[in-house]
Design a protein that fits this description.
binds thiamine diphosphate, Rossmann fold, seven-stranded mixed sheet, about 15% strand, about 35% helix, alpha/beta, about 575 residues, 4 domains
Length: about 575
């Protein structure tokens, strides 16, 4: 694509993509999730690499496995919770090993900038007995990605690369290189790839020996390195914490930087510990390195000083290790809080308003529509993980609503429905709870920045692709009642919802209107307030649109935000909001 040797400032995620290109990767299948999404988006810009969005992380992982089996270097990426979804194939891929190199990136979100929990993916590496590399900047993101493919083929194993928000989304200098494409032949090998008990039993000792071999690599390879400075303090650290430690201490402390965090070395740690007076482990989230050090019988500090929650910073490390903290305001003070809200013109808003008016209990899911939980709509009662809304509504309605008219519904986005909603819907159809499932079809994966999905009709490059027909799919699953409603039309939403809630069988409502931020969506002119008609009753404020406020006792529309969807005007009893209304 571009000339090979070049120095460039690169986002960590873009550097991983560059590493994939240079490593000769031929196949990438991923599911979006912050902060991992840009890896695949950037890789898709290389014509030499086949890239796709899979419906979910498990499918992506399995597709990458298939490509590796076929003899082509393969990759998939996901956020930390995505690795839970893909854990099933991953844990057994540890046993089969690979044919061509297979690398899996996982991006953790300490601080929960955009996640429902804060889990530490190193646990997966330990449990699946897989090597994990953790770059600390963009240069390492590129280098470790290439190295991961070498390790994968040398040790016959999938290799995990763990990113975190700060490494994924920070820029630093990288030097690019050339692309070489090592290809392998597919060879049938039932004993290696068919994991039924008789074969799997024989693979397990191979996995254990591989871990011992990888520990030898951890002791001597260049992934882990010692930077000796003042020996009164020795710090073992990794990933972004390494950058903070270096910024605070420079060479006023000695550092053991771990680039491979599973498996961990033993001798390297013993030797380092013996050279320093005080040993401290600095790691975000769980005390994994610390517990390993302690299991070697070496005294160290760690979580007695540092929190188990949230992201670290230079200031935190300085404060906890007795260094002076630079004066100035902290980030929280410097940046005014801006709670997330649905955008002006968001098509989800009309359906949530309808659900609120109908006093529904709403079991929610993950996407932009999770913001239906925010005031003033406050119309989401639970959110767990992708797909959980439909699973949960079934259980809820079986227990509480079976005898009466069910007012408990599930809401789920189009991408999330494809990801893991379909199996929940199969359960509703099969075990027949009288549930209404509302698919909020905004024709895109909105939350993570507009990725295509199997319902949109386009692929990752924006070219036409297969398109799943949601209505036909639901009918094929056995639903007789499948309705479509326009969420910009409150009356229509109300009628359809009331009819489906009172029906004596399970039903699906597809609330369909493309995301207002999609480039192809044509907006109407911003609404205007007729201040003679407006009585300041604030009915229009009940939908929580950021484009409406009250000024001098009357409604005011921010014309830079309003897309003219007209939902607010349907709430106005005085005909004061409209495109033709007199401007204030
Ligand atoms: C297992 C898992 N994978 C990925 C994510 C990241 N993520 C959150 S919501 C979402 C999809 C949202 O799209 P959609 O369901 O279409 O709703 P929209 O945001 O468009 O309203 C994704 C990919 C996640 N939270 N969990």
């Amino acid at each position: 694509m571009d000339s090979p040797k070049k120095k460039e400032l690169m986002l960590g995620n873009k550097a991983v993509a560059r590493g994939l290109y240079e490593a000769g990767v031929c196949f990438i299948s991923s599911y979006p999730g912050t902060p991992s999404t840009e890896i695949t988006e950037e890789a898709a810009k290389y014509d030499e690499i086949y890239c796709e969005w899979a419906p979910n992380e498990k499918v992506a992982m399995e597709a990458a496995f298939g490509a590796s089996l076929a003899g082509r270097r393969a990759f998939c990426a996901q956020k930390h919770v995505g690795l839970n979804v893909a854990a099933d194939p991953l844990y057994t891929m540890s046993y089969t090993g690979v044919n061509a190199g297979l690398v899996v990136a996982v991006a953790d979100d300490a601080g929960m900038h955009s996640s429902q929990n804060e889990q530490d993916s190193r646990h997966h590496a330990i449990a699946a007995k897989l090597p994990m590399l953790e770059p600390a900047d963009s240069a390492e993101a590129l280098a470790f990605t290439k190295k991961a493919f070498e390790i994968s083929e040398q040790f016959d194993t999938p290799v995990l690369i763990k990113m975190c928000t700060r490494v994924a989304h920070s820029q630093s200098l990288v030097e690019t290189g050339e692309r070489t494409v090592p290809l392998k032949e597919y060879e049938k090998n039932i004993a290696k790839y068919v994991m039924m008990p008789g074969n799997a039993i024989k693979r397990h000792p191979i996995v254990e020996q591989r871990t011992r071999d990888l520990i030898a690599l951890a002791e001597t390879g260049d992934l882990n390195r010692v930077e000796m400075g003042d020996t009164s303090l020795g710090i073992i650290t990794h990933s972004t914490s390494y950058q903070y430690v270096k910024e605070v201490f420079g060479d006023k402390a000695s550092v053991l930087k771990l680039g491979m965090t599973n498996p961990l070395p033993e001798k390297l740690i013993r030797d380092f510990a013996a050279k320093v007076d005080r040993l401290v482990v600095v790691e975000e989230l769980d005390p994994i390195i610390e517990n390993h050090v302690k299991s070697l019988g070496i005294a160290c500090e760690g979580k007695n000083l540092f929190p188990l929650e949230g992201e670290f910073s230079q200031n935190l490390i300085a404060a906890k290790l007795g260094q002076s903290v630079p004066a100035g305001r902290s980030l929280d003070e410097a940046i005014p809080p801006r709670p997330p809200v649905m955008c002006a013109g968001c098509p989800h808003r009309g359906m949530f308003y309808t659900l609120k008016q109908n006093k529904c209990t709403v079991l929610g899911d993950i996407g932009c529509y999770t913001l239906g939980a925010a005031a003033p709509l406050a119309t989401v009662d639970s959110t767990l993980c992708m797909g959980a809304s439909i699973g949960a509504v079934h259980g809820f309605n079986k227990m509480l609503n079976e005898a009466s008219e069910s007012k408990t519904v599930a809401v789920i986005g189009d991408s999330t429905f494809m990801h893991s909603g379909m199996t929940g819907l199969a359960n509703v159809a099969y075990n027949q709870s009288n549930s209404t499932v509302i698919i909020l079809d905004n024709s895109i994966t909105g939350m993570t920045g507009h990725q295509q999905n199997p319902t949109t009709g386009y692929n990752i490059k924006g070219d036409p692709a297969g398109k799943i027909d949601l209505e036909a799919l639901c009918r094929a699953m056995g639903f007789n009642r499948v309705r479509v409603a326009d969420p910009y039309n409150l009356k229509e939403c109300d009628t359809v919802l009331k009819e489906e809630l009172s029906a004596a069988e399970p039903s699906v409502i597809i609330s369909r209107r493309p995301c207002a931020l999609l480039k192809y969506v044509k907006h109407k002119p911003a609404l205007k307030v007729d201040t003679d008609k407006c009585v300041g009753c604030q009915s229009c404020m009940r939908i929580g649109c950021p484009a409406i406020s009250i000024k001098n006792g009357k409604a005011a529309v921010d014309t830079t935000l309003c897309v003219g969807c007209g939902v607010c005007s349907q709430l106005c009893h005085f005909d004061a909001l409209g495109s033709g209304a007199k401007e204030a």
